[in-house]
Design goal:
By secondary structure, the protein is mainly alpha-helical. The protein has helices spanning 2-40, 47-129, 133-146, 168-175; strands spanning 151-153, 182-184, 191-193. α1 runs antiparallel to α2 (47-129).
């Protein structure tokens, strides 16, 4: 950004100088035309005065030519800066387009996430409505201690489902409980859920 600002500043300065040269050259041309009109309109009768006007006109034309040459040189100096600024503008446009695309993608992703959260909240509320209030309160307390692992599914093949294997007697008892049973594990304290 600093490099672009420096380039823009340098380009603006060259442009100002070029316009100044063109303005001054146009002034010289206007003055020279006025003197030429005076020289040829018959109002100058003295050869000495005519010679002096001719010299003054020649000097003005020479100055005009010099100013025009300087203006052209300044335009030539501006060309590479214009190329750099056009490239910077094109790059800025590409970044702006990419940013817009990313913002749209982000907006879409956020909307999808919000929809998923709302659906999960609805599903959780529906599931919570089916659970006994005492068990729900117990679950909330367990979440404080165990986080997302507050409830584990009973798995007879793994020895219960908790990080700590159930004793053989406890495992056998759980095998005979009905589906839907939820009780705290006597070994680890988590809630154990028997689905089938």
């Amino acid at each position: 950004a600093a490099a672009r600002a420096n380039t823009e500043e340098a380009r603006a300065e060259l442009g100002r100088r070029e316009r100044d040269r063109e303005t001054e050259a146009a002034d010289m041309e206007e003055k020279a035309k006025n003197l030429e009109n005076r020289l040829y309109d018959g109002s100058v009768t003295s050869p000495k005065e005519a010679s002096a006007l001719g010299d003054e006109i020649a000097g003005m034309r020479e100055r005009q030519s010099l100013l025009e040459d300087q203006a052209i040189e300044l335009m030539v100096e501006m060309e590479p800066l214009d190329t750099l600024l056009e490239a910077a503008q094109a790059e800025g446009d590409r970044f702006a387009s990419r940013r817009c695309s990313l913002e749209q993608s982000l907006g879409t992703a956020e909307a999808e996430r919000d929809t998923e959260i709302a659906q999960a909240d609805e599903a959780r509320s529906a599931a919570a409505a089916k659970v006994d209030e005492d068990q729900l309160e117990l679950y909330r307390k367990m979440r404080i201690t165990y986080g997302p692992d507050a409830v584990v599914e009973f798995d007879a093949a793994r020895g219960g489902g908790c990080p700590v294997a159930m004793s053989a007697v406890e495992l056998d008892r759980w095998k005979h409980l009905p589906a839907g049973t939820v009780e705290p594990c006597v070994d680890c304290g988590r809630l154990v859920l028997k689905l089938s």
